[in-house]
């Protein structure tokens, strides 16, 4: 990492997990719709706010030459902040306002839409009768950024979202993420783990005071 540590504020707000859980509780309790949008190559949509230069990748450019960055790139420390400011400015132009204590939750009082932002993933929450407003919002976003419309949210940040709308029940679970970790670390759930004790052993309560050796 050859980036200069200037002490400049590079903090970019990130949606809190507790906020996500609260929003899911509201979706469940009031029967709201929840759609998801993914921004493609999000960071490069943001303009650089200072002069930054980088060496050319192998096979490109001329020897001894450097390139000036015009857009925020992945790997640059301040790219997350630049992207957040870029998107926040665009959403403000559409009439959205940040919640005072959670900048990644935005509300539009006119269209009755609630947004939850986590870097390049966006949840859109609304009453079912405002589905057209949801679609209009997606179209407005797509007119400026390249996005992937994922429709009804069923998986967000490795969290699976299961709903029973009629029963007003909603579950959020990370079984898929757990399975990925199992594969990553070579844990096979189908294999039983050998233990130093037999399965028939039943420990008895100890009435006395354990010694250091016993502990």
From TrEMBL:
UniProt keyword Mitochondrion, yes or no: yes
Domain of life: Eukaryota
UniProt subcellular location: Mitochondrion
Occurrences of domain Reverse transcriptase Ty1/copia-type (ranges): 9-197
Annotated keywords: Mitochondrion
Keyword Disulfide bond included in the entry's annotation: no
One CC-aspect GO term: mitochondrion
Protein name as it appears in the record: Reverse transcriptase Ty1/copia-type domain-containing protein
């Amino acid at each position: 990492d050859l980036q200069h540590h200037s002490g400049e504020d590079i903090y970019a707000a990130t949606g809190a997990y507790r906020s996500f859980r609260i929003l899911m509780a509201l979706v469940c309790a009031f029967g709201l719709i929840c759609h998801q949008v993914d921004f493609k190559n999000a960071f490069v949509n943001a303009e650089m706010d200072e002069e930054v230069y980088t060496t050319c990748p192998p096979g490109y450019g001329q020897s001894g030459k450097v390139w000036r960055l015009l857009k925020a790139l992945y790997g640059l420390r301040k790219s997350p902040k630049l992207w957040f400011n870029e998107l926040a400015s665009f959403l403000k132009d559409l009439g959205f306002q940040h919640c005072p204590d959670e900048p990644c939750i935005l509300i539009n009082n006119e269209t009755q839409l609630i947004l939850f932002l986590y870097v390049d993933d966006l949840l859109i929450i609304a009453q079912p009768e405002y589905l057209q407003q949801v679609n209009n919002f997606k179209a407005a976003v797509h007119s400026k950024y390249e996005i992937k419309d994922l429709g009804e949210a069923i998986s967000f940040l490795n969290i699976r979202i299961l709903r029973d709308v009629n029963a007003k029940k909603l579950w959020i679970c990370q079984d898929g993420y757990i399975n990925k970790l199992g594969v990553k670390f070579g844990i096979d759930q189908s294999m039983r783990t050998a233990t130093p004790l037999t399965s028939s052993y039943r420990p008895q309560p100890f009435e006395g005071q354990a010694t250091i050796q016993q502990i």
